[in-house]
Amino acid sequence: MAIMMPASDQAVLARRAEIVAALRAIVPGEGVIDTPAEMRAYESDGLTAYRQPPMVVVLPDTTEQVSLVLKYCAGQGIKVVPRGSGTSLSGGALPLEDGVLLGLGKFKRIREIDFDNRVVVTEPGVTNLAISQAVAHAGFYYAPDPSSQIACSIGGNVAENSGGVHCLKYGMTTNNVLGCEIVLMSGEMLRIGGKSAENSGYDLMGVITGSEGLLGVITEITVRILQKPETARALMVGFAQVEAAGECVARIIGAGIIPGGMEMMDKPAIHAAEAFVHAGYPLDVEALLIIELDGPKIEVDELITRVETIANACGSTTCQISTSEAERNLFWAGRKAAFPAVGRISPDYLCMDGTIPRGALPKALARIRELSEKYQLGCANVFHAGDGNLHPLILYDANKPGEIERAEAFGADILRACVEFGGVLTGEHGVGIEKRDLMGDMFTEIDLNQQQRLKCAFDAQGLLNPGKVFPTLHRCAELGRMHVHAGKLAFPDIPRF
């Protein structure tokens, strides 16, 4: 493993048998997995380049069990890594050799469907798609739809603040989650938010969403559901130049049109997806835009005409408009299958995740082409064009010496370019271990220390998911210590307690 993780606590490892027995008393039956063969399934998440078997796996199925596990581990100084479905692409659920992997796969019940308040109360192990399926009979759905929605869990979506192809109009997870139940490392259970869209006090839901398992373990989530739009149609527009597609995106947004979804794929991604799904994608274009418009039929018809006019003005070479729900779904099927499709043309790939201002799209794609030549590795680009969230897929072969190191360096340079162009290191996959050591390229030490102080307020011992997000891990006491220079206190007039 190229990425360094916290040193293992040998004293904890020496007590492994005792720890396993204590956890079996809390979660009986098949709730504890401790054999090497059975734990292999948990040694990595979706970022499979990095693997590490855990000390032990615990699979509770009640909030009380989660509370007791965390309270025991806190008392014994044992690290804990929360894990959902394991689809994270940033290594956020990578286990620790001396840590407990706390799996939430048994939390797969929808506790309440409340159509009057337009919310669903669900456990974290329920898949994203299952929420929409549970309310579809009444004409409702859950808007955020990451491409892995058939497998990814809603708890993981909250931890990573996941997006999806419809996040441009309907928002990320943070815009669609209203409340949660969270268990702190101490075992204390908290309820934050609820069914109301507005809550008094601090925005703790904003803190929890995207916290990557560093602050607490989520055991219940209240999400907003929406009524399905009357009409939804998609345009599939091809361009001879990537820059022209980028210009089309900018002009559509500039015209005040907010599509339900707007995605872009470059030529390698188009060919891979078409060979896999047979969605009817044009193969003679350099870039493909999929633009979905939804709402009342008369409005959608008008917007289609306006978007088609903009696309023609930008030099589009092909334009196909869906005429049925089946055809619209087929357009999206290719895009949503792009990641597995690329897996058919390369033994391995790294899926990157960075965000740039929309206007920087041509520069970013040009830089990616330059880096591809520099590192002599292929790259297929798939991204949420509307909000500038890039997903370059770096192709490599882990069996060839040096290729994974080149792929990592390639990916790091892409993320540095995102920051250089005015963007950020991540859009929806989180920091995890993948981007951890690049945080200094975006934040100052003061920024990072302030973020760690927030973690200390929730987890003073630093036992929840250590080694993730922060490039340098400080003890909470170090972050709070007073600095004395030349024998003088800073701001000596401030009362100190």
TrEMBL record:
SUPFAM superfamilies given in the database record: FAD-binding/transporter-associated domain-like, FAD-linked oxidases, C-terminal domain
PROSITE patterns: FAD_PCMH
FAD-binding PCMH-type domain boundaries: 50-228
InterPro entries tied to this protein: FAD-bd_oxidored_4_C, FAD-bd_PCMH, FAD-bd_PCMH-like_sf, FAD-bd_PCMH_sub2, FAD-linked_Oxase-like_C, FAD-linked_OxidoTrans_Type4, Oxid_FAD_bind_N, Vanillyl_alc_oxidase_C-sub2
Recorded superkingdom: Bacteria
Co-factor requirement: FAD
UniProt keywords, alphabetically: FAD, Flavoprotein, Oxidoreductase
PANTHER family according to UniProt: GLYCOLATE OXIDASE SUBUNIT GLCD
Identification of the protein by name: FAD-binding protein
Species the sequence originates in: Bradyrhizobium xenonodulans
